[in-house]
């Protein structure tokens, strides 16, 4: 026994050695080889609606194969003119021209050359006939009610599948049920007929879907005679009952037919569907049951159809063979039939013979094994002929294998193994090619390859060699075979370089050598940089409903940019290229935007990059944050009068730790349902001891808070009621509301409902004059106000308010000092004097009134003044009172913005919270002269080559007696240099114009004009103009200045200039620059008056700016609002306030006229510079 096992092991080892030694590879067509069939037809059906029928057979070989066919094992003539043969192929067509039935049969293709013959499997060409029912006369059928009957169909033969239907002439299906059944063959069975089964149009239809054909059998007539008409003298009930009793019978099988006996055999192929049918006649209608003898019906694969008359088992296997029993029964008995099911199978390969390439002198083996039921018979052929006709010396032939040693070139052939049983035949070709050639490398020389750093490189060197060859690789510049763990050599010659580096770039040689010679090719390898990705932000945490924005930053080799493609996925599932249809997810190349983020958007987002050589991915974990779920399972414990412990369970925090819990309560008796915050605890805690107030029916709820926000409130806890108690606190904020003299209206903040501690809340108010040795007066009220009459005006009182309820009083109250109601001051201050500071500012001093005459809290003093007349023209002014208030206890104040050279009246009064007291006697004072305002306009009305005539208007405010004008001018050509300043004193105030002479021709001048009084000259008004040049145009103005059209033109120019200046002014206020400003910077005014007194500080006028090269730095930071006309700095408010060195704090109100400051209080202005 041991020797036998050893022998079998030796044979098995030899087989594996021989199989390995015979290389099953594709032989290049350049090498001689036997034919190989590469394409062939299977079953071909000649449908009548097809144009032609093609039977295919394609093969390769060297020399090129020739083709021949057999039909029904007889040679088939391809030269038949009724067929069309393809060039260089065995394929031919049969046109559908009416003679195709001649070609029906089984075909086999043979491809041959001088080395062998390949043989195809048998293919069948089927020419189906058009199925028809025979023309026949069908006799009517007549049966009695309750009898069985069978209506035969006998469908014609045709191309399967076949579908049979029973219908009437109206194409309505004959209803089938437990009593009526159509068999697999198409016959219609009635277990017992009823009167309603009578009809004359039973039609059997046979449908052949592959032929697109339906045929109909001639209608059959069935008449059912009712037994109730047999005896007309009897009642129908009696007759029907008698008939039933006569016709009732036990079951009798109609299917399978009674001729088959009580048992029958059924053969089914493995994998097919088994259908067993059983139908019995009888009355009542029999019921059919199925069982398997000695086993169970296969679950999940068996079904009962047609009211149990058909047993269906799908995908039959060998374990389904055996005996199946059908039992038909009613209450009178039963009938049985046994089916002996045999499962068989067509042949199938278990070991299919494999083609092989051998060298001379080698050994080989062909294996051929198949399975089937019955067991297949195996036959060998060589080049299509039985192997017995082609023996080779030394060959060993058995049904399952052929082995041969010392193979010679004449062994080259095509071997066929054919396995067959009653259910079919299978054929396999195995090529034996005996070849002795030098290695043929099939990969092209100088192929270029590329990979990226870190990846594997594959350099191909596909070859064919017989005898067996050895492959070696080397780097061209090193000229030695490659060695090392990073190099892997595949059997097909491919070199695999793992974990490539930049040093691996270069040229490689592949050498293939066998006993017949050696061959080589060169391959070039280029190493690219690996693609890198980075997704930002990394692992973002996004609140729900916010927007998620991800960016995929990629970096790849410049040679690979053209092939770089980016894609996005979430949790391994790719997004569409453009995102989602609803637009919530948008993909724009490297950017992914998710709007209105939901919890479902949480996950791992991956950006993938694919190039021609590599692929990589970068991931980021997106966490969606949301408010916590509400806490759950609130529980109260350790209940006390003033405390209780609340415990709860935390809800889901939705990826954001809970930072704190808010405990709210509801228990306000006056506002039920209103929840208020009670306390907060850290997020780690889930229990808290709560301090409670008396006389409250508490209910609690908890809100969780995380970085996203607050959760919904939890469900409320159980109620907890605390007993009543005396108040714990007294009212706060005790005060006096505005009241009448000798009266106090006392008010306080009432206790909140949660502070009352019990029912019956009242307030006990006590009071007495401060410091007086008298008893406290007392009154108890329920609201939070009390009116008390006093004996004195604005007298201090000690007041106490205590909370009281039915259970007692609150703590001992604290006294507060309140004053009784105020009255108006009853005396006026006395004005000591008015000191004139300058033409627009005076200082007023007065005596304060005694404290007892204030009758309240002194808030300050009020100065009233009004202008009575102008000293310039003596005209009186209507009384327009100006008011300025000064807070606090003080005896002086500064009155600004007065008109110069005018007479004023002034009064002073005191005021308290109640109101103002009486005014003092009016004090009369006069303001001195000041400098005038600038002239209203300055125009150059006429120019010549050396003269210019200027005209101007009087200042709006003269501020004194006008003594004349100061006219100045200088050259201002478009350079940084300016000419000498020239002065002209005009001592005639009434003269409105002046003619300048001795000017330079074609020269630009700037003119400055100031109005003057005895106090000095005011601000200048400026104008620029150019003199004319030499020639005939010198007297142009003399000729045209008086023309009407010229005057109109000048007006239009003036209007446009005004619009331009307005635009420029707006631009300058916005910080823009324009040419007019630059020109002013270029030619500054010649003088600057800058006066700074202790009262006013510094002021600037926005109309004139310092010029380049002049006083650029003077007052650069001053604001336009800092003018002498402003009263902000004099009155009460948040603006500038004077200090005690002669300045004041006051509030100016209701000014009717604004005064102009004179030189020591005027705005800083720009003046011409002396050249």
UniProtKB/TrEMBL annotation:
<feature type="domain" description="Fibronectin type-III">
    <location>
        <begin position="630"/>
        <end position="725"/>
    </location>
</feature>
<keyword id="KW-0130">Cell adhesion</keyword>
<dbReference type="Pfam" id="PF13927">
    <property type="entry name" value="Ig_3"/>
</dbReference>
<feature type="transmembrane region" description="Helical">
    <location>
        <begin position="1045"/>
        <end position="1066"/>
    </location>
</feature>
<dbReference type="Pfam" id="PF13882">
    <property type="entry name" value="Bravo_FIGEY"/>
</dbReference>
<dbReference type="InterPro" id="IPR013098">
    <property type="entry name" value="Ig_I-set"/>
</dbReference>
<feature type="compositionally biased region" description="Polar residues">
    <location>
        <begin position="228"/>
        <end position="246"/>
    </location>
</feature>
<dbReference type="Pfam" id="PF00041">
    <property type="entry name" value="fn3"/>
</dbReference>
<dbReference type="InterPro" id="IPR003598">
    <property type="entry name" value="Ig_sub2"/>
</dbReference>
<feature type="domain" description="Ig-like">
    <location>
        <begin position="531"/>
        <end position="623"/>
    </location>
</feature>
<dbReference type="InterPro" id="IPR036179">
    <property type="entry name" value="Ig-like_dom_sf"/>
</dbReference>
<keyword id="KW-0732">Signal</keyword>
<keyword id="KW-0393">Immunoglobulin domain</keyword>
<feature type="region of interest" description="Disordered">
    <location>
        <begin position="228"/>
        <end position="265"/>
    </location>
</feature>
<dbReference type="Pfam" id="PF13895">
    <property type="entry name" value="Ig_2"/>
</dbReference>
<feature type="domain" description="Ig-like">
    <location>
        <begin position="347"/>
        <end position="433"/>
    </location>
</feature>
<feature type="region of interest" description="Disordered">
    <location>
        <begin position="1151"/>
        <end position="1171"/>
    </location>
</feature>
<feature type="domain" description="Fibronectin type-III">
    <location>
        <begin position="931"/>
        <end position="1031"/>
    </location>
</feature>
<keyword id="KW-1133">Transmembrane helix</keyword>
<keyword id="KW-0812">Transmembrane</keyword>
<dbReference type="InterPro" id="IPR003599">
    <property type="entry name" value="Ig_sub"/>
</dbReference>
<dbReference type="InterPro" id="IPR036116">
    <property type="entry name" value="FN3_sf"/>
</dbReference>
<dbReference type="Pfam" id="PF07679">
    <property type="entry name" value="I-set"/>
</dbReference>
<dbReference type="InterPro" id="IPR026966">
    <property type="entry name" value="Neurofascin/L1/NrCAM_C"/>
</dbReference>
<feature type="region of interest" description="Disordered">
    <location>
        <begin position="1077"/>
        <end position="1120"/>
    </location>
</feature>
<keyword id="KW-1015">Disulfide bond</keyword>
<keyword id="KW-0677">Repeat</keyword>
<feature type="domain" description="Ig-like">
    <location>
        <begin position="439"/>
        <end position="526"/>
    </location>
</feature>
<feature type="domain" description="Fibronectin type-III">
    <location>
        <begin position="730"/>
        <end position="823"/>
    </location>
</feature>
<feature type="domain" description="Ig-like">
    <location>
        <begin position="35"/>
        <end position="124"/>
    </location>
</feature>
<feature type="compositionally biased region" description="Low complexity">
    <location>
        <begin position="253"/>
        <end position="265"/>
    </location>
</feature>
<feature type="domain" description="Fibronectin type-III">
    <location>
        <begin position="825"/>
        <end position="930"/>
    </location>
</feature>
<feature type="compositionally biased region" description="Polar residues">
    <location>
        <begin position="1157"/>
        <end position="1171"/>
    </location>
</feature>
<keyword id="KW-0472">Membrane</keyword>
<comment type="similarity">
    <text>Belongs to the immunoglobulin superfamily. L1/neurofascin/NgCAM family.</text>
</comment>
<dbReference type="InterPro" id="IPR007110">
    <property type="entry name" value="Ig-like_dom"/>
</dbReference>
<dbReference type="InterPro" id="IPR003961">
    <property type="entry name" value="FN3_dom"/>
</dbReference>
<feature type="signal peptide">
    <location>
        <begin position="1"/>
        <end position="24"/>
    </location>
</feature>
<feature type="region of interest" description="Disordered">
    <location>
        <begin position="709"/>
        <end position="732"/>
    </location>
</feature>
<protein>
    <submittedName>
        <fullName>Neural cell adhesion molecule L1-like protein isoform X3</fullName>
    </submittedName>
</protein>
<feature type="domain" description="Ig-like">
    <location>
        <begin position="128"/>
        <end position="223"/>
    </location>
</feature>
<dbReference type="InterPro" id="IPR013783">
    <property type="entry name" value="Ig-like_fold"/>
</dbReference>
